[in-house]
Design brief:
It is built from 15 helices and no strands. The protein is mostly helical.
Length: 315
């Protein structure tokens, strides 16, 4: 027990070092004052668009989660799902916790409505479907970008690897009931059998599964629009194809569990791509990238408000 706790503390400390060290190195190379000079009043309309798209994305996420809960989801108010989406962002973005926002919102939702296994399955499938939609957009736009820029193979390789892993996870989940788990394991953790059934049930609900994929496409369109607005806000337009490809690479690399929420990694990859390949000055790239914390804070604030509200324990 003490050893496990020590490992978690050490892991968190190393992630903090990577994040702080990454940011420190970048701003040592690029003075923060130069970055700030790009934030002018021309950015305000674009920030408004970013916040609008952020709310739209959260609504789509709530609709996708509700749809994947099938008949049970229809019994729960739509706004309740929005609340828990915001709650997840609160824990994900603000609290130095060992639990991800998805885990917190899913467990809290399950305890409140009594369907934890189905909730876990729905959120897991939602997350992977979102990744698959992102990778679909990436591969559609990639031919338009590689003809103009030489993208390092390590980046495209990482995206391909995570895309294949996502496909495997989806199929493993849908057919998880075909896997015979050891009795010793299921006797200790009976929840695993419930989880298997919760995942495999979607084989019989193809429409709900398809609609979750459609929602995921809408989410990617919203995300691409937000990233497009970052560069518009600092007066350096970048075409949508390049935004889509570079955004996917940045998000994929930021998923590596070596920093806190990708902080430090995300900024470094942005500079590597937009400065190294497009020639946009690093201070401008960082000015655009740091605008990405606005929707994160906006989401977390909403979650904090909902967290402070008293919750009912029944439907």
């Amino acid at each position: 027990m003490a050893s496990s706790r020590a490992k978690k503390i050490l892991s968190s400390a190393l992630k903090a070092i990577v994040s702080v060290g990454g940011l420190a190195y970048i701003f040592w190379k690029v003075p923060f004052g130069e970055v700030c000079s790009h934030w002018t009043t021309q950015a305000l309309p674009w920030i408004g668009l970013i916040l609008f798209c952020t709310i739209f994305s959260m609504i789509i996420q709530a609709n996708r989660w509700r749809g994947l809960l099938l008949e049970e989801g229809k019994k729960i108010k739509f706004f309740t799902f929005y609340e828990y989406i915001a709650l997840g962002y609160f824990f994900n973005n603000l609290l130095p916790s060992g639990f991800g926002g998805d885990a917190v919102k899913t467990i809290a939702f399950g305890k409140r409505f009594g369907n934890t296994a189905n909730s876990v399955a729905a959120v897991a499938i939602s997350r992977v479907m979102g990744l698959l939609a992102m990778f679909l957009c990436f591969f559609v736009m990639l031919p338009f970008v590689v003809t103009r820029y030489h993208i390092p193979a390590i980046y495209t390789g990482a995206v391909c690897g995570v895309a294949l892993l996502s496909i495997f996870i989806i199929f493993a989940g849908l057919f998880s009931d075909k896997i015979k788990l050891p009795t010793a394991l299921t006797s200790k953790i009976p929840f695993l059998l419930k989880l298997q059934n919760a995942f495999s049930i979607y084989r019989g609900y193809k429409k709900a599964f398809f609609l979750s994929g459609l929602d995921s496409i809408w989410l990617q369109i919203s995300s691409i629009t937000i990233h497009y607005a970052y560069f518009q806000a600092v007066g350096v337009p970048v075409d949508l194809a390049t935004i889509t490809v570079f955004m996917t690479i940045t998000i994929t690399v930021s998923m590596l569990p070596i920093s806190i929420n990708g902080i430090g990694l995300r900024e470094g990859v942005n500079v590597s791509l937009f400065t190294g390949l497009l020639g946009i000055p690093a201070d401008t790239v960082l000015a655009a990238a740091l605008l990405g914390y606005i929707p994160m804070i906006f989401q977390a604030v909403q979650g904090g408000i909902f967290l402070c509200r008293p919750q009912k324990t029944t439907k």
